[in-house]
Write a structure and sequence with these properties.
Layout (H helix, E strand, L loop, with lengths): L5 E6 L3 E6 L5 E6 L8 H4 L3 H23 L4 E6 L3 H9 L9 E6 L5 H18 L12
Parallel strand pairs: 1-4, 4-5
Antiparallel strand pairs: 1-2, 2-3
Length: 141
């Protein structure tokens, strides 16, 4: 039987820490461009233009994450903000993710070791609990 590719992502709107369970918790980080300092010329822009720019940067951030997620069978999104729910809403309309089981959990800020333990514990527990579950996507809020 083929082993499932599992990924944990601790995320907020500015950064995502990716933890690949199949590669001894290999880690990677994706940083949103929207978190960089505001330049002086940006201060001159009106508010709607700044919001448009932030939305485009968030869309690019989610696109980078979706490119990684599509290669996995099971994904855990966790973190302190609603960024994880926003990402799930973006992914649920895309057929590329129909066979990816995505779960969402709230979590506070964590150290790297805490993130590793959280992801390992989640997939250890879900592996035992999902033996009788069909191969369809689940979204938990």
């Amino acid at each position: 039987m083929k082993s499932k590719k599992q990924l944990g992502i601790w995320m907020d709107h500015s950064v995502a820490h990716l933890l690949d369970l199949n590669n001894s918790l290999e880690k990677n980080t994706i940083v949103s461009q929207s978190n960089f300092e505001v330049k002086t010329e940006d201060l001159k822009l009106d508010e709607s233009l700044m919001q448009n720019r932030e939305q485009n940067q968030l869309t690019d951030y989610f696109k980078q994450l979706s490119e990684v997620i599509k290669d996995y069978d099971e994904v855990l999104l966790f973190g302190p903000t609603n960024a994880k729910a926003e990402l799930v809403n973006t992914l649920k309309d895309d057929r590329h993710f129909d066979k990816v089981k995505i779960e969402v959990k709230s979590a506070d800020k964590m150290t790297e070791n805490q993130r590793h333990a959280f992801v390992k514990e989640h997939f250890d527990a879900s592996g035992k609990a999902s033996k009788n579950v069909s191969n369809s996507s689940f979204f938990f809020f």
